[in-house]
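Run log // design_07
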C-alpha cells in the first residue's frame, strides 16, 4: 500500500491529511501529485469520488506556501457555486498556513463591484465560476499575470453548462502557468476545450469500480452525437424484426415518447405504442402483460416516470433511449433475476454530454458497458452551429 510521504508534499500538508483521516493516497493522487510537482500540464480523468478535487487542492496548497503577491497565483474554476463552496471548505480544511488568502467569485452573493474591491486587497487562491471570473477580469479587477496554477475542475460539467468560452478566454489570458484539467469523462468537446490552451498535456485516466460487481444484464452502449441521430439509430435497429420482436424503449418525457412514436410509425405503423397514452394510436396499453400478449404491437415506448415498479425481465429487448435521472432505477431494471434473462438484449444510447451519467452507472454496477460501433449506413445529423449574436 502506498504511503502519504510518497506524495512529496510539505510536512504541514501531510499532517493535515493525517488529521483529516487520509491514511493512504488514492490511485489518482499517487499518479498525479508527483507529476504536478514536476510542473507537467495534466488532464485527469476519473470517476466521482476517486480523489481528483482533493488532488487539485493539495497541489495548489503545496505550490503556494507563502503570501507574497497582491495578485492571485492560483485560479481554480468550478461549474457552480455549490461546488465552489465545497472546494473552498476543502481548502480551509487542509490549509495550515493562516496567512494564505482565499476568495470565492460566484454570482448570487456579493456584487461584482464588491468582489473586485476584495481582489484589490490581495488574494492568493481564487475559486470561481468561469463567467464570474471573466466578468472580474474584464473589469480589470482580476490580475492573471501571476497565475502559477490554473485548475479546471469538473470540466465535463462546465462544458455541459455552456461555460467553455469564458474558460478558454481566461486560460488564454494567463501569461505562463501550469494547467490542470479534471473530468469524469473524456470526449471530443473536452479535447477541443483544453486544446485551446494546452499544447501537449499528459492525459491520466483511472477507473475505480470498487470490489462489488452487481449481477446485471450485459449492456451495449451506442455513443451518438445528438438526439436526432438517436432517432435514426433507433429506427434503423428496429427494422430488424427478427431480433427486435418485443421491445421496451425507455424515454424521459412524454414529448420524447411522442417524438419516438411518430418517427417509428412512418415505417412500422400499427406496431408502435406508447405506454398509458390513450388516443395517440389504435394500440393502448395500461399493463405490460397486455403488450406482451398483443400479436400486433412490437415496440412499446415507456416514459421513465410511468415505469416505477415495472418488471421488464421477461422482455427479450430493452432500449434506454434516454437514461433515467435516478441511477438506481436503471440498475434495478437490469438486474439478472433468472438464467433465462442472460439472453436479454439491453441497449443504451448516450450523447457525449451524458457520458458522466454512463460513468456513474458503470461505477455503480462495477463493470463497463460494451461500446458498439455505429452502423455505417446510419445517417448522422450534424449539430447546428449557433451564430454569435450581433452587438
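design_07 sequence
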Amino acid at each position: 500500500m502506498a504511503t502519504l510521504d510518497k506524495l512529496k508534499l510539505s510536512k504541514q500538508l501531510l499532517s493535515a491529511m493525517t488529521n483529516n483521516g487520509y491514511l493512504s493516497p488514492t490511485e489518482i493522487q499517487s499518479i498525479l501529485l508527483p507529476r504536478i510537482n514536476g510542473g507537467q500540464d495534466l488532464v485527469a480523468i476519473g470517476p466521482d469520488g476517486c480523489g481528483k478535487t482533493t488532488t487539485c487542492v493539495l497541489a495548489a496548497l503545496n505550490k503556494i506556501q507563502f503570501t507574497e503577491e497582491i495578485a492571485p497565483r492560483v485560479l481554480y474554476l468550478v461549474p457552480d457555486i455549490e461546488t465552489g463552496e465545497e472546494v473552498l471548505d476543502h481548502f480551509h480544511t487542509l490549509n495550515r498556513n493562516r496567512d494564505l488568502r482565499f476568495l470565492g467569485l460566484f454570482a448570487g452573493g456579493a456584487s461584482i463591484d464588491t468582489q473586485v474591491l476584495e481582489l484589490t486587497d490581495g488574494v492568493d487562491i481564487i475559486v470561481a465560476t468561469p463567467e464570474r471570473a471573466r466578468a472580474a477580469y474584464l473589469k480589470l479587477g482580476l490580475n492573471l499575470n501571476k497565475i502559477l496554477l490554473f485548475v479546471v475542475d469538473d470540466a465535463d460539467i462546465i462544458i455541459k453548462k455552456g461555460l467553455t468560452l469564458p474558460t478558454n478566454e481566461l486560460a488564454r489570458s494567463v501569461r505562463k502557468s501550469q494547467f490542470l484539467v479534471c473530468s469524469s469523462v473524456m470526449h471530443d468537446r473536452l479535447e477541443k476545450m483544453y486544446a485551446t490552451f494546452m499544447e501537449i498535456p499528459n492525459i491520466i485516466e483511472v477507473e475505480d469500480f470498487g470490489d462489488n460487481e452487481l449481477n446485471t444484464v450485459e449492456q451495449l452502449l451506442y455513443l451518438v452525437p445528438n438526439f436526432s441521430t438517436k432517432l435514426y439509430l433507433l429506427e434503423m435497429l428496429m427494422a430488424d424484426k427478427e431480433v427486435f420482436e418485443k421491445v421496451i424503449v425507455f424515454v424521459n418525457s412524454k414529448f420524447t415518447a411522442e417524438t419516438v412514436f411518430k418517427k417509428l410509425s412512418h415505417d412500422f405503423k400499427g406496431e408502435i405504442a406508447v405506454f398509458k397514452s390513450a388516443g395517440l394510436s389504435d394500440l393502448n396499453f395500461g399493463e405490460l402483460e397486455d403488450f406482451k400478449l398483443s400479436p400486433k404491437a412490437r415496440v412499446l415506448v415507456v416514459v421513465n416516470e410511468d415505469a416505477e415498479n415495472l418488471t421488464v425481465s421477461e422482455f427479450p429487448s430493452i432500449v434506454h433511449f434516454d437514461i433515467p435521472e435516478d441511477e438506481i432505477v436503471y440498475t434495478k431494471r437490469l438486474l439478472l433475476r433468472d438464467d433465462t434473462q442472460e439472453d436479454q438484449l439491453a441497449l443504451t444510447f448516450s450523447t457525449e454530454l451524458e457520458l458522466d451519467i454512463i460513468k456513474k452507472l458503470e461505477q455503480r454496477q462495477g463493470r463497463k458497458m460494451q461500446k458498439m460501433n455505429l452502423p455505417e449506413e446510419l445517417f448522422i445529423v450534424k449539430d447546428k452551429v449557433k451564430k454569435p449574436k450581433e452587438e
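Residues 219-372 form a domain with the Rossmann fold fold (CATH 3.40.50.300).
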